[in-house]
Design a protein that fits this description.
By secondary structure, the chain is α+β, with helices and mostly antiparallel strands. About 25% of the residues lie in helices and about 35% in strands. The strands form four sheets. The protein has a six-stranded antiparallel β-sheet with strand order 3-2-1-4-5-6. A five-stranded mixed β-barrel has the order 7-14-15-16-19. Strands 10-9-8-13-18 form a five-stranded mixed β-sheet, with helices on one face.
Amino acid sequence: MLSPKEAQERCHALIERAIKAGAEAGDAVYIADSSESVSVRLGALEDVERSESEHIGLRVFVGGASASIGSTDLGDEALDELASRAVDMARAAPADRFAGLAPEELLLRAAPPELDLVDAEEPDPLTLRRWAEEAEDAARAVPGVTNSEGGSASAGRGVVALATSHGFSGAYGATSHGRSASVLAGTANGMQRDYAWRSARHAADLPSPAAIGREAGERTVARVDPGRVKSGTYPVVFDPRVGSSLVGHLLGAMSGAAIARRASFLLDKDGQKIFDSSITISEDPLRPRGPRSRPFDGEGLPTGARNLVENGHLTGWLMDAAAARQLGAVPTGHASRGGSGAPHVTAGNLVLQAGTVSRAALLADIADGIYVTELIGHGVNGVTGDYSRGASGFRVVNGEIAGPIAEFTVAGNLIDMFARLVAADDLELWRGIDVPTLRIDGMSVAGD
């Protein structure tokens, strides 16, 4: 893996070759990562895995057309061939009046902010194994746990670099650490499984392996002997680990590309109130140590904090340069890049801000409801907002979590669901999308 400075130099070298080969403009992106993980099961070492990847991608523009190509070979001869082939491909491609680099005047010119994304400590395999064993041991020690799928611990490191032909150059490194455990409980005919995991940029920001293991064991035991629920209309409460998916659906519908294609259930709703006025959804890609933090976007534009939803109102679309041209707007610094191909839209460190009531108070007036802890499948229509997903979780009876339930479906329409959404005050910040416990009344539940 190259250092950030070396990665920038390779990107510049590729851009120079592309211009010499006949490109009118272009950008190059370098993405590399390495990771190591150790897994144990029933106290014995099960797997040690190390992976490394390194990729450089080139996008060129010729005569209003563009082409993208990538390679894992970063040698001079490979870059020569890459540049030549990309220009030939662009010359043969149809013109696209929306294609092009981001506006030069919007590029990040200042030094990128320091986001503390790199942990100087790098655990060795023996330390990873010890953490994995501690997580599994704690999970297996929970009364009622009968078997284990294992514990694991991992550490990784990556580098991203981007250079454009019109003046942007930047690079940054980042690390990641993860711990997890997964166990089983119950009899052979009614076996239940659950898990717990955490990830962070710095290992010091993680809970102890034992805490993660205990959480996995307690979650699993609570699911034993699930009942069924009768079909009907219920208040549905989403646990934070699944409620974040609702914000993910919102994010996809706010993509400028989806709006330009008229393929979003939020079409024509810019600026409108779609949540209760108590709901604010913020983004901060510059949060130190954040899981989705980055100092610049995939087109060289600065990133920054903003509210995607403020007092219940949408505040505008998320746009890369191409979508902005289609919509007659300005790119918003939300472009993201893979090793090749055109940019797509993403957002950094999203938070649905905490409400003012406790989780207990959120449940208190529910005489008969559903608490969802797991969602299954992908039954969401991004064009209409129709929502239908398999689920499991618990009954809520007279304001209290009751017995486990499984094999049911929760359904509704996201516009209606957003309008009825209420947030508790139990927000924790550690995922890429963080939400507190969420309640939505009047959802359709299909069970027995």
